[in-house]
Design brief:
2 copies of one chain form a homodimer.
Chain A (H helix, E strand, L loop, with lengths): L3 E5 L2 H10 L6 H18 L6 E6 L5 E6 L2 H4 L6 H12 L11 E7 L3 H10 L3 E6 L1 H6 L11 H7 L3 E3 L4 H13 L12
Parallel strand pairs in A: 4-5, 5-6
Antiparallel strand pairs in A: 2-3, 2-4
């Protein structure tokens, strides 16, 4: 049996985040960074074309940034949102981010059903999305059986939701991944 | 920024799993182990009262076992199912468990919305549940906005679902946790 579950975070996450830190001052700059993470992740071959960033709601300063690590780290739960939320929770030393203040999860794509749940349990109070779930599906990914009005479900739980922020730029990365024959990492190759 | 995301797995996971290994030969013995993990996790104070086990569908041999580690490891995504599936993926060296054969996730409780998604993406072909989501809700936990017919959604994706296996024994652990004033670890203390 395995004694540890170590997830080696690529060095470029830290380098890219630190280099961008001075520029992160609003939702738009945070989304640009999330999209950059999605694109860089393709170039590095570390996982699916998804990036996510956690920022503070008050001054929009950067807390954590990450990308999908499913294929390179061998764990199907390492979607970009889970990676970024986990890094933020370790950074702020709490499993409940709300206890550290109001935080925003900025993701290059709308959440799949797992990440929708992960967002609720994380304690963030805002979710901002770039590409739509339908853009991910066009690229061959599966969003899972999400409730039809998923944004409303999050809002009912106190999480403000904003979609279509730089949607075109985010969707372009997904299309690029698909056209390049990128691996669709859903279990059993389902699309 | 954090460079790693190491998750220290408690030593008792391995000890308990190895001690039980010779007895795991069917669904019932696997569920008994999942429930034991849920109960031991309360005694150890390592997280919520949930346990999960991954076994092979052909000979029902044990692959991995775990419990909820949210509060002790500081990550809100570490529900028992995610922990057990991750350990199985590391053990079998693949993010797609289906590539390693047909595997069964045996959980002491029905999945929340996040773990429903995690189950789909993991590549397991069977899910077996002990307590119902309503039992967890009675104890103060939140299942999240799951689709109404969640079992059907999994079945449509090729995952066989069996519920109410040793439900009473599993629900008893949840009730015990609640009556003992156990921490409800949903973000922002929502119940």
């Amino acid at each position: 049996m395995i004694a540890d579950l170590n997830i080696d975070i690529p060095a470029w996450f830290k380098e890219k985040a630190e280099a961008a830190r001075p520029q992160i001052k609003d939702i738009d700059s945070a989304m640009a960074l999330a999209i950059e993470f999605s694109a860089e992740n393709i170039r590095r071959g570390h996982g699916g074309p998804f990036g996510a960033v956690v920022i503070r709601a008050d001054d929009h300063s950067l807390v954590a940034a990450g990308a999908n690590l499913v294929t390179s780290r061998g764990l199907s739960s390492l979607h970009a949102e889970v990676v970024a939320l986990s890094l933020a929770q370790r950074m702020l030393k709490t499993w409940d981010l709300h206890s550290a203040g109001e935080l925003i999860l900025v993701s290059s794509c709308e959440p799949c059903i797992m990440c929708m749940g992960a967002t609720i349990w994380s304690g963030v109070t805002h979710l901002v999305c770039g590409a739509r779930g339908s853009d991910a599906e066009l690229a061959g990914f599966d969003e899972g059986p999400k409730p039809e009005h998923w944004e409303d479900q999050l809002r009912q739980r106190g999480i403000a939701v904003q979609v279509d922020v730089q949607r075109d730029a985010a969707a372009k990365v997904l299309a690029h991944y698909a056209s390049g024959g990128g691996k669709i990492y859903n279990a059993r190759g389902q699309s």
